[in-house]
Amino acid sequence: ELKVEQNPLFLSMQEGKNYTIYCNYSTTSDRLYWYRQDPGKSLESLFVLLSNGAVKQEGRLMASLDTKARLSTLHITAAVHDLSATYFCAVDISRGAQKLVFGQGTRLTINP
Amino acid sequence: GAVVSQHPSWVICKSGTSVKIECRSLDFQATTMFWYRQFPKQSLMLMATSNEGSKATYEQGVEKDKFLINHASLTLSTLTVTSAHPEDSSFYICSATPGQVNYGYTFGSGTRLTVV
Q1: Which of A17, A30, B13, B103 has the fewest CB atoms inside 10 Å of its own CB, making it the most exposed?
Q2: Computed over its alpha carbons, how large is the radius of gyration of chain B?
Q3: Computed from CA positions of residues A62, B102, B58, B26, in that sequence, does the dihedral angle turn out positive or negative?
Q4: Which of B44, B49, B54, B93 to mutate to probe the A interface, most A CBs <10 Å?
Q5: Do B32 and A98 touch (CB under 8 A)?
Q6: Hey, of B32, B105, B111, which one would you mutate to test binding to chain A, going by the most A CBs within 10 A of its CB?
Q7: Cα(A61)–Cα(B3) distance, rounded to whole angstroms?
């Protein structure tokens, strides 16, 4: 059974600081997604990582994927308050039946 | 980009009644749609995978007779919560994929169900 684990689950940081959220998964997959969820809202797609070594950046967020280590990271640079949200990674095990398995989520709070 | 519309956004119903939630892909055809449930401060749990023209595939522990899924067309899937009880109160989210790898999965806006 595929397990997806995020670390940390809660993160409180100050504006201007850098930090990294980690996403580990237990079985082979070469597709990983990062989503943002604001309170009471659905998911907003941030990144789609499709191959080993993939790196994508959008604004202050950068995501990477290491399929050999079964690890993805979401790096936040010079955090701003607007980035406060819950971030989920999700792993696609579309071999046979399509299925997306989510991590527990990381609740990020950025303080002014 | 791919857009998925979900209705209603929120619904309050009495115990014992049924509620239907619709999920539509607006600008692409989705042979497969997915239904998730999210309890407060928890992650998304896949309930079932809905395939156009065939029976849904339910995840372990999800009662298929309680959560009826219909995927009658390439753009519409519905989830009906039958004989709802307060413990069914949750945030229900659908998603769909055009099937092209680069698009990934697009999520609907979610439905907040409260059973009283």
Answers
A1: A17
A2: 13
A3: positive
A4: B44
A5: yes
A6: B105
A7: 23
